[in-house]
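Chapter summary example.
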Amino acid sequence: MKYLIPILLIFLVACEGVEETGFQTGNDTIPYAAVLKYSDSVFKSHQADTVFLFVNPRMSLLIGHPFEPTEKHSIIVRLINDSTANLLVLHDRSGTWDTLVNERSISVQLRNEELSLDFEDYDGDNMHDLIFTKSKWDQPQGEVADLWLYKHKQLVRIKNFDHIINPVYDEVTHRYYGQEGLGYNSMNVYVSEYKLVNDHVERSIVVRCLLNKAKDSCLVVMNDVPTLTIPVKDAYKYMPAYFQQEVKDNFESEKK
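The structure predicted for these 256 residues follows.
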């Protein structure tokens, strides 16, 4: 609790001497000096921690070594209002904080969920990258996220990554995959495959399986073109390899 009050004071109270390049919060802009000073003090208090994370329903603050064990970062994401967030990523270079990311208008739809920052390897270089989940929904469940790849001590935002629903990265194929249910039956599915090209992703495969339960069949739609009607039990054969076993297992569980 000893960090709760200082954090809220810095990010919720209006400050004098506002800088144009500061951190947006509600109708106010917090000067960078205040953000940097607080980042430094929290890091010094948690030098033994790989990551110090503070989360409340409107803000996430992470200070530590999320990308490399030798590199110090401060990452702050805060709701400006119910539909917009501000993301700030700072990197310590020999005692001076440099700005890597300052995104002021990220569209969010979280429906009272906490702001989520995740760190995983999303390009196969054995270094963590930054993923910010910015929209979630139910029935069927889904989410979209923004991805920043960590390259040469910089963060590169990957364009169009938020087109992928429920994104995952496959280390074998080095492709990104998305999957969304099309109703309550797990055989009604939409799967997609994307490849990374420079600083953006391009869609390479989209497969829909549109279930006809009465006929125990499935209309396969490949890249938006109706292709063929097949028995439901064979639907997995037309999916990208990454999903084949999962779709096959779903069919077997539906039949029980």
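To summarize the output: The longest strand covers residues 200-212.
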